[in-house]
């Protein structure tokens, strides 16, 4: 699930960081700093202080641009642990996450044997330092003891493992009260080879954790490898496969001629007319397929380093695949990119003319065994392995003889195809062509739909 991001709180947290940042930079450095943090350019110095200039820049930043600003702050600036954790929690609560209730957390902690993790103490402590406040920022020599939580963990968990149980460790970290996204990332963080460079140890931990996660419909599931070790992600598949896509065949100008170059590895190639199809063959991460991911792939395949030029050429290439007679499809595609034009890199890619199924034979050749809905109008890959299909239905979806007669059999076949897609883990949304035929009429409808789908604040564009 995901909550509506608390943008008011996010703005307050970013402002708190800026209060400390202005002390580290000179007046002449502020334009470069704001550009790096994705903030509007600060006003000229004149008689304004550095603090006033940064505050003015933040005030000029619209709400929908705050999450990328917070991301940039986390990536590029040193923050105290409390500042970092507060920012991360607001951002992560606005994204997909899996709820792990307190009872499950405590039962999991009681069963967790930290022996394997203690074999790699530096890696283990590095993980804890990334996710928890280990007290190093608030260290006070006149306090009750001359140490930090990190020191305590080194002493009571690593050097003298009988001192603290795993449940004690979770209690000191604050893991039982932590937000669901942070606890989920903690579970994921205990599994990879960067913390446990021992496959058998990885699998022992995952097997134990999954015994507690499976009643929630969740699991740590292997999704690929890193440096020869298994890579696990926390997922909640629900119905359908929700597996990571291997090949995305989209923006097709005609039916592709596909063949397997390695059936064992699911490697494909377009045997003929390769210029009429795009194939995205990079791994899709847990955040789904964002526009910036697609653009990076396009720049690499086209050999261009100019992102603005690549954005134009990629958009035009995808637009060219849309059927010219479907004004509704064309308008939906244009509106999506226009509505999100100021933060396009941060939203999911809208892939047109996507092949969800593929059969070398035609429907007529396959007969009653033919698969329905081979190619869909649009596909989006969202966080949490969520796959969303968008269809724009004209009269051809439920009529025959040029739209003069209703065709209930054609409509039934379309609905049957939708059911199959839903059982495979897709969400299917259908628009009527007439809803989208007029741009002025379609804009508020499309804006509201994507705001709800992506769980974003309302857009200000008219």
Would you write up a description of this structure?
With 462 residues, this protein is of the alpha+beta class. The chain has 3 domains: 7-93; 102-235, no CATH class; 248-454, Trna Endonuclease, Chain: A, domain 1, CATH 3.40.1350. 44% of the residues lie in helices and 14% in strands. It contains 19 helices and 12 strands. The protein has helices at residues 7-21, 30-36, 50-59, 66-76, 81-93, 102-111, 115-118, 121-131, 149-159, 166-173, 180-189, 199-213, 291-302, 307-320, 327-339, 363-366, 408-423, 433-436, 439-454, and strands at 219-226, 229-235, 248-250, 257-262, 267-272, 278-280, 351-355, 375-382, 386-393, 399-400, 405-406, 426-432. The strands form 5 sheets. Strands 7-8-9-12 form a 4-stranded mixed β-sheet. Strands 1-2 form a two-stranded antiparallel ribbon. The protein has a two-stranded antiparallel sheet with strand order 3-6. Strand 4 (257-262) and strand 5 form a beta hairpin. Helix 1 runs antiparallel to helix 3 (50-59), helix 13 packs across helix 14 (307-320) and helix 15 packs across helix 19. The protein starts with 6 loop residues before the first helix and ends in an 8-residue tail after the last helix.
Gross geometry: globular
How many angstroms does the end-to-end distance come to?
30 Å
- Biggest sheet details: 4 strands, mixed
Number of E-type strands: 12
Number of distinct helices = 19
Count of discrete domains: 3
CATH topology of the largest domain: Trna Endonuclease, Chain: A, domain 1
Name of the CATH first level of the largest domain: Alpha Beta
Known CATH architecture of the largest domain: 3-Layer(aba) Sandwich
- Compute the CA-based radius of gyration: 26 Å
| Residue share in β-strands | 5-15%
Task: Determine the fraction of residues in helical runs and give it as a percent range.
Answer: 40-55%
Structural class call reads alpha+beta
Mean pLDDT: 85
